[in-house]
Hints:
Elements: E1 2-3, E2 6-7, E3 12-14, H1 23-31, E4 36-43, H2 52-57, E5 68-72, H3 76-88, E6 93-98, H4 103-106, H5 118-132, E7 139-146, H6 154-164, E8 168-175, H7 187-195, E9 200-203, H8 209-219, E10 223-226, H9 236-246, H10 255-290, H11 296-303, H12 309-326, H13 333-336
Parallel strand pairs: 3-4, 3-10, 4-5, 5-6, 6-7, 7-8, 8-9, 9-10
Antiparallel strand pairs: 1-2
Helix pairs in contact: 1-10, 3-5, 5-6, 6-7, 8-9, 10-11, 10-12
Amino acid sequence: MQIGHIALPNRLFAAPMAGVTDRPFRQLCRRLGAGYAVSEMVTSRKDLWASLKTSRRANHDGEAAPIAVQIAGTDAAMMAEAAAYNVDRGAQIIDINMGCPAKKVCNAWAGSALMQDEPLALSIIEAVVRACAPRGVPVTLKMRTGWCESEKNALRLARAAQEAGIAMVTVHGRTREQGYKGCAEYDTVAAVKAALSIPVVANGDIDTPQKARDVLARTGADALMIGRAAQGRPWIFREIAHFLATGEAAAAPEVTQVKQWLVEHLHDHYALYGEFTGVRSARKHIGWAVRALPGGEAFRARMNLIDDCAAQVRAVADWFDALADAHRLLPAAANDDLMTVETEMRA
């Protein structure tokens, strides 16, 4: 599996999700089997690049290659400048966001709203490719099937994107109108794959190894992108890889191993965000990890009252130690239930 000249170790990708796929979470997904992970969206507005929020998103200290950054905006020149800015800060692949359904993004005509204006969408693609090509940086595109059921234009836009130099296209099998409701459909993804010569990635509702197998068979996609199902369960990439290779379900991870992964993730998280923000923003990751486990909801309620990093880590470690006394392997519910999405913006 390659994106342009860049070879990837496998075809299981972590989807960009605002408020979720920061550097610590991307690194965790990579450790647990993802072959590729894309950053949270970075705005093309130059006046916001120095903000703490954007500077954190553009921080790739210690991150393994390839470093992929998703950019969002509505102006071709600004998007090209944003691409160059992020390449200067370590990005080796630039991804264009035309898939985010969040109102505050679409109301500004960014994200999936761009699919309503194909000339503008294509001008952005062409400008970003022009900015990145001399630097040897591939450009990818993430989009939906269309704006609504009556306006599914993913195939037409994907063809134009390939002609403009896009190196890979990811299609989430929903319209913007659907948001994350209903079920993803894969016929559009299959049509895009059949029409393009560049890699095509299927995204949407891939939450079990069996579903991963079925989506690959249904679409012929070159790779799979997994988002919500990795929240609280980043080892899903390892599970899918094992199932695709052997046809057999992997054993659930040991509770003590899950504790170690989560504690290490928390320390990485605090290092990026600091004490005040880190202890608060880590709560969602802990909540996703425990909510489907026995006693998880009660623990989450208690944990949300902790405002000290060290105390938060101790509470998590103690809770998992108690769980390990009763269960050597992670209870099945954590492997069967898709964690509920709680962040607003998704790419």
